[in-house]
């Protein structure tokens, strides 16, 4: 948009750019800057317009973008142009993701680079390598307490390794996702060290207070993220003699984005990684970016403005780079991280579908789809050009992130239902075979979350100990059922490394001092590649799960209705054990009906209930299950689903 004030400021800024920038050929950069400047200016002004040095800060911002654009390689600039043309590229059903630790999936980055064929073998073409930047040894929060944003942890490798991995992945059309921990740094980051040495400029990078007055005001309403290991949200620093805001662990200092210098520094870091060829940046803990006294300091309007600014700046400099929002918050809040009142994502193009994840676990415990039907019905509509990351497990704990309202609508009482789920997954509930661990228990509000691998939570660890073959097979079906949903729901499915071969909880963290008090390590395994080889041997768990997922991925990639174009309609069936939706294709004969039986017993569906949605067919023999490539089981005009069975149905 053209607007006089912002345009005249832009002209001023361009005139002031240093000669080394001016002499470069930056035509695409200038076009994008012109197109985005009104928005950028307005947002920056909302946050920092009151400052006397506002224009100087804006100049600095433009300089950072220009310099990073100059560093951007011609290959990546070409990628920018190609993706600008094909702007819906990431909504295609061809993308299938996996999250992993470099030193869990492999030994380190060089070793990981030798295992890229594994992704192709499975069909994965989007790889999220968990944080690999330098962190203090025993205070790293699994990589989320960064002490140097431009240096890779020596334990896992160096920049050259990642450049090699990017090149190898790009040859195979595999995308790379890396984390940017935007909300906080380690207390050993050089900014924190300078702050600790008394440097006022750097103390301004964080929320630092002389005494408890303001911290106490904050504490009245701030929740606690790690109530057991890091209670409270402030930490006293002996050397400084002051209090620092530390919402996560006490060694993770929250960055103060009220200071524009912090924003500009972080933008420079984002663009640095975009320039290494990273396709997608996962922005960590974005709900927490802006703090205010008298609330939860989550999902604040200013946090959204910051993300819009990051997006605008990235579109100017490295437009092919997408963002993932890691905002594990209430369903109505999550969708806002795409940006509101828009068609295109204004903030992050991709967001974790934490709501679906939690609802899937509810369906596992209750063996019915009452709450998932309710929750998905109320899942707020998302923007057209934005998509979900659909996942079952990740490196974090499972929070029961659905609303009390939905629980009530599904016919339960919220408090006791949540308690039931915690008891169920921690194996305390009668007959429960889940082997989860309670995480973040908070005696003040009885809250808790759940750790454990998919396999152990489902009950396979228990079944293996019992040596019960029927149960083992049923558990495998259950694991596949959950995957059948994330592969068909609409969005990018994200497999958690190890789940594809049925990896159990790893209890060795208990013997490691730096991990023992954080049971999320139970589900951050070290892959045993000898055991993984069993995926080639028929009759093994590894083989059964791996080959089924391989097939599911292959089939998904062929189904155009699985692309994410807001083309899903939920179908409410009379039998509460079914979760069912239709994926609508551009021509109706290509529609696909997904139906999943969450019960451990046979369930039947009266075909009349889906006839209208599917194809108004007369002859049910014309239906095929795309996954198994067989006709579904029909008996007396009823569709039969065995325990934990799913179908992806289409007319032939
Ligand atoms: C990160 C952490 C390290 C941890 C590892 C787990 O690299 O820095 O402490 O052992 O992740 O894979
Ligand atoms: C994110 C990460 C989590 C980490 C937290 C603090 O939620 O996923 O592992 O503990 O941020 O950085």
Give me the CATH superfamily of the domain at 567-651. Answer: Golgi alpha-mannosidase II
Report the CATH topology name of the domain at 567-651: Immunoglobulin-like
**Shape label:** globular
- Rounded to an integer, what's the Rg over CA atoms? 25 Å
How do the strands of the widest beta sheet line up side by side? 1-2-5-11-12-13-14-17
Helix share, percent: 25-40%
The poorly predicted ranges are none
Number of strands: 25
Determine the mean pLDDT.
Answer: 96
Q: Which small-molecule ligands are present, each listed once?
A: alpha-D-glucopyranose
Which structural class fits the helix and strand makeup? alpha/beta
The largest sheet, given as strand count, sense and whether it forms a barrel, is:
8 strands, parallel, barrel
**How far is the first residue's CA from the last residue's CA?**
49 Å
Strand content: 15-25%
The second-level CATH architecture of the domain at 567-651 is: Sandwich
| CATH classification, class level of the domain at 567-651 | Mainly Beta
Counted by DSSP, the helix tally is: 25
């Amino acid at each position: 948009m053209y607007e006089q004030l912002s345009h005249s400021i832009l002209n001023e800024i361009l005139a002031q750019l240093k000669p080394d920038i001016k002499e470069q050929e930056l035509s695409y950069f200038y076009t994008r800057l012109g197109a985005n400047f009104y928005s950028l200016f307005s947002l920056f002004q909302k946050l920092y317009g009151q400052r006397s040095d506002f224009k100087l800060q804006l100049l600095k911002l433009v300089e950072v973008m220009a310099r990073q654009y100059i560093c951007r390689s011609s290959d990546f600039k070409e990628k920018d142009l190609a993706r600008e043309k094909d702007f819906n590229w990431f909504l295609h059903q061809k993308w299938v993701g996996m999250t992993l630790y470099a030193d869990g999936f492999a030994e380190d980055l060089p070793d990981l680079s030798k295992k890229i064929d594994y992704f192709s073998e499975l069909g994965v073409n989007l790889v999220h390598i968990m944080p690999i930047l330098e962190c203090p040894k025993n205070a790293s929060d699994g990589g989320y307490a960064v002490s140097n944003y431009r240096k890779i942890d020596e334990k896992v490798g160096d920049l050259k390794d990642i450049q090699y991995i990017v090149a190898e992945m790009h040859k195979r059309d595999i995308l790379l996702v890396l984390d940017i921990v935007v909300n906080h740094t380690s207390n050993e980051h050089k900014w924190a060290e300078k702050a600790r040495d008394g440097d006022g400029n750097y103390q301004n990078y964080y929320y630092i207070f002389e005494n408890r007055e303001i911290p106490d005001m904050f504490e009245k309403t701030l929740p606690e993220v790690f109530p057991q290991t890091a209670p409270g949200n402030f930490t006293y620093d002996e050397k400084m003699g002051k209090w620092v805001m530390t919402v996560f662990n006490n060694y993770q200092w929250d960055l103060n984005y009220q200071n524009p210098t912090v924003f500009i520094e972080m933008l420079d870091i984002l663009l640095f990684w975009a320039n290494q060829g990273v396709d997608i940046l996962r922005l960590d803990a974005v709900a927490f970016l802006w703090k205010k006294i008298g609330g939860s300091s989550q999902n604040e309007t200013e946090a959204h403005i910051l993300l819009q600014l990051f997006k605008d700046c990235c579109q100017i400099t490295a437009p092919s780079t997408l963002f993932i929002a890691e905002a594990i918050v209430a369903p109505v809040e999550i969708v806002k991280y795409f940006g509101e009142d828009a068609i295109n994502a204004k903030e992050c193009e991709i967001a974790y579908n934490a709501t679906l994840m939690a609802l899937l676990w509810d369906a596992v415990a209750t063996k019915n789809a009452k709450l998932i039907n309710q929750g998905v019905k109320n899942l707020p509509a998302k923007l057209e050009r934005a998509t979900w990351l659909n996942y079952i497990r990740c490196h974090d704990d499972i929070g029961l992130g659905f609303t009390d309202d939905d629980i009530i609508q599904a016919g339960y009482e919220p408090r006791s239902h949540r308690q039931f789920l915690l008891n169920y997954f921690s194996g305390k509930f009668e007959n429960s075979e889940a082997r989860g661990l309670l995480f973040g228990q908070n005696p003040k509000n009885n809250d808790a979350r759940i750790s454990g691998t998919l396999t152990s939570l489902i009950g396979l660890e228990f079944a293996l100990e019992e040596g019960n073959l029927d149960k083992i097979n049923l558990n495998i079906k259950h694991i596949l059922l959950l995957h059948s949903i994330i592969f068909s729901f609409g969005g990018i499915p994200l497999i958690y490394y190890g789940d594809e071969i049925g990896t159990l909880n790893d209890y060795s963290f208990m013997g490691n001092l730096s991990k023992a008090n954080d049971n999320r390590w139970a589900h951050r395994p070290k892959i045993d590649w000898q055991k993984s080889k069993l995926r080639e041997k028929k009759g093994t768990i590894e083989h059964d799960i791996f080959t089924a997922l391989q097939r599911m991925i292959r089939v998904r990639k062929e189904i155009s209705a699985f692309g994410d174009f807001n083309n899903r309609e939920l179908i409410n069936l009379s039998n509460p054990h079914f979760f069912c939706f239709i994926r609508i294709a551009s021509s109706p004969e290509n529609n696909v009906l997904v139906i999943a039986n969450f019960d451990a017993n046979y369930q039947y569906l009266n075909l009349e209930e889906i006839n209208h949605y599917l194809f108004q067919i007369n002859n049910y023999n014309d239906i095929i299950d795309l996954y198994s490539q067989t006709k579904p089981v029909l008996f007396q005009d009823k569709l039969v689903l065995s325990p934990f069975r799913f179908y992806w149905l289409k007319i032939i």
